[in-house]
Amino acid sequence: MTDKINKIQILSDTLANKIAAGEVVERPASVVKELVENAIDAGASHIELFIKNGGKLLIHIIDNGCGLSETDLPLAFERHATSKIKTETDLENIHSLGFRGEALPSIASVAHVDIKTKEKDAATGLVFSVIGGKAGQLKRIASNMGTSIEIKNLFFNTPARRKFLKSDNAENQQILIVLKRFFLAYPSIEFNLNIDDKKIFSLKPSDLRIRIGEVFG
Predict the structure, then answer these.
(1) pTM of the predicted model, to two decimals?
(2) What fold does the segment set 13-83+95-216 form as a domain?
(3) 214: buried, middle or exposed (CB in 10 Å: 19+, 13-18, 0-12)?
(4) Nearest-CA neighbor of 14 among 165, 161, 140, 130?
(5) pLDDT, tens digit, for every residue of 49-98?
């Protein structure tokens, strides 16, 4: 008696994205890292973060960066779509933090994502939602320049991944480790951090010496 050998099959885009998400999104801190990198790459001088339940319930990041256009917004949630690489030569001269075109589609495949964005000279802002990799309709709204992105119910559709997350406090500590690196690397950027409706950091632009004292003092 021989065992049945399974045939090779091409995975659906939804399933492939869920699997790929494991390489980019290990825990809430991974999401925070990717989104803050996007904000910095967008030229933000002010970044505000709201975290609830260790990032499992909510990760909300608001920046005053350049925003996304009507064409670019849906593309940002397609795998391997990026504004930071156009040719192979660009791989040898990368100056941005995020460049692979993997982060947003990976996050959106395992969470509820709501994003509002507006470019500087745009007449209106845009709002777009993706739930478990399924995109909604792009709509126009009144909005300030920059981007507001909310990540809700992380790993809602991959319970096996969600159950391996640690306590809210432990996940918050992982988020703080990630954020403190950004706080110190970019003292010229204003950061505000709120965890479970409590203000944890309110850091104005400063030099590195002052920023170190604010973060560790």
Answers:
(1) 0.84
(2) Heat Shock Protein 90 (3.30.565)
(3) middle
(4) 130
(5) 999 999 999 999 999 999 999 999 999 998 754 544 444 454 445 444 55
